[in-house]
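Example record used in the benchmark description.
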Amino acid sequence: MIKIAKKNDFTDSILTQLIEFARKDVDEILAQLGTNREGLTSEEAQDRLEMYGLNEVAHEKPAPWYIQLIKAFINPFIGILVFLAIVSYITDVLFTAPQDRDWSTIIIISIMVTVSGLLRFVQEYRSNVEAEKLKALVYTTAAVIRKDTGEKEIKIEEIVPGDIIHLAAGDMVPADVRVITSKDLFINQATLTGESEPVEKYPDLKEEKRKAKDLSLSDLENICFMGTNVVSGSAIAVVLSTGDRTYFGSMAKSLVGHRVMTSFERGINNVSKVLIKFMTVMFPIVFVINGLTKGNWLDALLFALAVAVGLTPEMLPMIVTTNLAKGAVTMAKRKTIVKRLDAIQNFGAMDVLCTDKTGTLTLNKIVVEKHLDIHGNEDDRVLRHAYLNSFYQTGLRNLMDVAILEYGAEKGFNGLEKIYKKVDEIPFDFVRRRMSVVLESEGGKRQLVTKGAVEEVLSICEYAEYKGEVVPLTDEIRQEVREMVKRLNEDGMRVLAVAQKNDVPPEGVFSVADESKMVLMGYIGFLDPPKESAPYAIKALKEHGVDVKILTGDNEIVTKKICKEVGINVENVLLGNEIENMTDEELAEVAEKTTIFAKLSPMQKSKIIKTLQNKGHIVGYMGDGINDAPALREADVGISVDSAVDIAKESADIILLEKSLTVLEEGVVEGRRIFGNIMKYIAVTSSSNFGNVFSVLVASAFLPFLPMQPLQLLFLNLTYDLSMTSVPWDTMDREYIQKPRKWDAANIGNFMIWFGPISSIFDITTYALMFFLIGPIVIGGSYFLLPEALKLLFISLFQTGWFVESLWTQTMVVHMLRTEKIPFIQSIASWPLLLFTSAAVTVGTIVPFTSFGAKIGMMPLPAMYFLFLIATLLAYLILAQYVKTRFVKRFGSLL
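Model output (structure tokens):
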């Protein structure tokens, strides 16, 4: 839910203006807005659109490209490089004689900064552009009445003050509007006022409120606010204000708690905390040891900063963004639009999918199968009355209404509108679960025709058409009705009851109270066959560790039949009225073992999802109706369809262009692949970096010089990180995506502690090799016996040797730790990862032989070094494979 921060003056002025509009007569408001009940012309609307701008409230949009470019250069890695460049400028240029000035370090650092920043910018900018393109495919519309074109659907953004709009159940209120006419209009405005129950809106304020000195937001009974939604009923309204000039828009900048933190965001934060803890410990230790042993505190500080940066997976933001955006594009190709990128990971982590059955398990193509009297005989009168009810309703038409109208047209009922005219309507709502129309025939006879759920219609009937006569509705007849409906349900049919009442009094306005003393006529039976793909999809989801639970407003008998046909094991059935009598603890206990939840209200759906989440489940919910909106908001990942009502699409994180469980299964797999690659980068990079830092600690304690220059260490990190930009394109083992995956920061810490020191072992052997063998052979003596000039060469050779060995082991071990299997034999990386890691080690090996290498303090390595390097690498990979198997045995999984 949206929470409201303290109101500002602008918000107060908007409220004052709305109160004034509420107190005025409609005709006065229309004159003030320069419009009338027929609406604006298209030309007038276009002029106002240019004057007032698009009907959009201030919300988070992608930053302009130049802001994204600047932000791409703001991270610890680049910060240290810039700091080093400043120090280099001071020491090598500013306080140096003109003939001795050396710009090489500054140029090299500039190149590294440019490459790193531009790479991140390009990847993230492209990702954001693709994400916005995908989101633009789904938009919300409103029914606007224009003088020259009549009523038509337009994008909400194109609505202007003075427009006349039509509201019906399922619509989002597109702007602040004044009601002109209404019929049982109920609005859910909990997002603004916190009222949990829908409130009824009228064309005029009650007299006592009109005269009241002070009115609050909830007192404005003839004003509907932008961002609220229509629960039931219908209305004609005039638009008062749009965009930031609405009450909702005025508060956009003071909204707090836009969204509850997702499991994805919590996971990233927890991992960051682990890395910060390691960094907090390592930085001062490296700084103090190097300062004490080497005597140069400035060099020690620079080196410690480079080490701290080296411990950070600098490319993590880019890797995460690229992974998610790539996943969004992949899913778009599979007819799935991702509105919120973070939801992809929740998709993969989902272990319970709650869904309605209609259109998911079934074809979503409902057809009228039977139209029967009470005894089960075909009766065209029942169908005719149902047809009139569906034809004349102005609220939210569902699939059964469409089926009745199509079947009625085939039967020749499409001429009935010439015989009957509608006097009034009592719209559908989710409490009554029925709707009624009042009709008048050519002869002036009036009748009330009601259609709805069987039990709800039975509750308002006192009579029945029984064996050709109208008789009192006895308990025996009620029982006969229920048995007939049960048989139809067992055949897989959904059933609506039809009732009517003659001699309706000539009232001007009708209400729910008029739905009484009615005559039950019969039933309409609908069939919605299961999809051919549903059994496969259910089985596939189950194989991937996702339990499917059905949350439906339909009855349990039809639902059980459909579930059995598609392969869902019906373990337990829970009805809405049973849930009402349960405590939260009792519901939590039963929900785990229940497959079907039937006859649910919207809030009961939401309650079940919350209960499952409290038990530790990551819950997805798929729905497309107004009654699904609370559940879509509550779920970890809300899933809807392009044909859904406005409020459902707005509440969802993911929109399916194809309402199929097969698409969901593909989304789950994609989400787990994305999550796996993110975890792969974090775990492998963090452990490698930790190993390097641990090696630095050892070297700092025993070596008389720095094991690597700060610039070399940063260049090492840059080269490695560039190779890791290919991780989003890597594959995941089939075994990894078989079950849901959740963030586990503790496992990252374990991974670092287990695998980091392994690389340190071989770093230390490289230290010993370079210091005691290769260094003395190449330079011509032990370090301590060499003159100062040769000591510098010795240090350069040592640092180069460790640079190359560190890059090789750090890069190649990625292939070892990316899978629980034996790399290159049982599991091979994708070609981009193979190409990039190969390029990284090739570049790192060649650099010491170039002038660039010389500029950053490197020198060519002798041939004998590479023999030792190959032996070191093989030994390292074998040991890493052994430790990997022990790690999996100890902790259950690698990543």
